[in-house]
Amino acid sequence: MKKIVLIVICLSFNFSFSQEINEKTINSEIEEVTVFIKGAQIVRKKSVELKKGKTILKFTNLSPFINSKSIQVKADKNVTVLSVNHQQNFIDKLEKQDTLITLETELEKTKDNLKLEETYLDILKEELAFLQENRNIGGKNEELSVTNLKDATIFYSSKLTALKLKEIDRHKNLANLRKKEFDIENQIQTMTSKKDYANGEILIKVESKNTTKSNFEISYVVGNAGWLPSYDIRAKNVNEPVELIYKANIKQDTKIDWKNIKLSLSSADPNLSGVAPTLRTYYLNYNTAPPSYNRLINQVTGKVVDNDSQPLPGVNVLVKGTTIGTTTDFDGNYAITIPETSSQLEFTYLGFESQVLNIKNPIHNVSLNEDITSLDEVVVVGYGTSKKRSVSDKLQGKVTGLNIRGASSSPIPLVQVENQTTVNFKIELPYTITSDNKSYAVNMVSYNLPAEYQYFSVPKIEKEAFLIASIKDWEQYNLLEGEANIFFEGTYVGKTILDVRYASDSLQISLGRDKNVVVDRQKISDFSSKKLIGSKKEDNRNWAISVKNNKSETINMLIMDQIPVSTLDEIKVDVLELSKGKQDIDTGEIQWKFDLEPNKTKNIDLKYSVKYPKNRNLIIE
Fold this sequence. Notes:
Blueprint: H1 2-18, E1 22-26, E2 29-35, E3 40-50, E4 53-62, E5 66-75, E6 79-89, H2 98-133, H3 146-191, E7 199-208, E8 212-222, E9 225-235, E10 242-252, E11 258-268, E12 283-284, E13 299-305, E14 316-319, E15 325-327, E16 333-337, E17 344-349, E18 352-358, E19 366-367, E20 378-380, E21 422-426, E22 431-433, E23 439-449, E24 452-457, E25 466-472, E26 482-488, E27 491-498, E28 506-513, E29 517-523, E30 529-533, E31 536-549, E32 555-562, E33 565-566, E34 572-577, E35 582-583, E36 589-596, E37 601-613
Parallel strand pairs: 1-4, 2-11, 9-26, 12-33, 13-19, 24-32
Antiparallel strand pairs: 2-3, 3-8, 4-7, 5-8, 6-7, 6-20, 9-10, 10-23, 11-21, 11-22, 13-16, 14-15, 14-17, 17-18, 24-25, 25-28, 26-27, 29-31, 30-31, 31-37, 32-36, 34-37, 35-36
């Protein structure tokens, strides 16, 4: 009986040993990164020696911001991938950057020196107090000689002077050390957040029929990275092409440096909106006011702070629904140009809750709340369902395919390069972007764009002339909406928005205001009047528009205005004078196109009358 029990125990031991799964820890390097407007796809490659049977490969030292559902695994055909698991290792923290370690060491040393200086200053104060308390010379019954008085005075004076000078030096040292401490702390804050993050890990369970060497490729999407397009637009004069410099502002704080990687930039759904004013149809009816042209807010500035009112540098500020964005500076300040069709800003920052703000004022200060949500472990099993699983079964299940995708059936956002709405840019040279929360500007490409120039003005809204460059065949340049710096005739003239969302056959780029083209619009009171004719009232309006060209060259000009459009038969609008302008009957919009020679002035008259029943009231501009 004892022999039988012993045999059973031995068989059980051998069986359990044979079922034991080998585990290997894998350190891999980042090979490729595709950066999206929000997030980035990381590609890692590694060749691994595998024994016959089942093995768990644990890829370590990964970003803590991995989107579990985006994980993809590829392996050679001689290996079967059984399951994929993503987890957070809160015990083994991610290694800090060398620069960060150096700064933290320097900060600790500076704080020690501060304590030392404060101690020296306390000692000096004690010595000064002791000197003050013992400055009485001689006893009560002792006669003080002149010599003793002189010696005592010299001693007291020299000692007091020495102590006071030392005190001044110590205060100077303290001030310098405090400034150094402040500078180091701020520098550390720009490189990392307040939180400590776990070591991201991907566990891949594989099975090999033989001892072999297999090549693995894993890819996944991480947060806290992205890029924003921006442009420099330069026009020397109205007779030469527009130079457009396409730039990418890349930023990442994934806690993992990207060293000498193949870098690609990707986006989806390119869009655009213009900054020049536009007319709205002027419908005329009783108790209806003319369209209001109060200029919308086209730029927002402000400051972003935390709950302790401390500035947050590097906060992403995006016009919601677009790729127009910026980041806060060292003091938490930001400034962003707003398209006329947008009304919300989105603020995102590592370790803090995102916030969407309705734009109501040109100045918006924002306070972000810390995000206390913990990162839950998510198990990803190829083509199955995704949920939390127990330790005993979280690595069970078999998938015969070699490409293991996340549990969600929806595609990873922005990964499909073939997608017609996606624009990809590949950087030819290896690139390094450290995880330091800083923005890296990359000049991607420069274009010389043939353009037709025209000055444009809607003096009813703004008595300014905008220079518009019209570019045909713009689709071939893969432009995205973004802020643009405008340089005209060698001078920086301001910012505009390059937006392709509403562009048609030609792309209109506003090159800003030109003060050398003077536009004015005035109501002529002698003609603008109201009178009664039988059962009708008649209101007459006369607007005088003038354009003067103070430039040294002939310009092509487009002026736009409008007359009201009647929606009732009893209201009649008659055009009395258009100065050869072209009228759109449906919208009431009027255009004047003409060439204007240097130092010449063009005068335009716009006259119309409105007749309506005398017992009704009508609001007319």
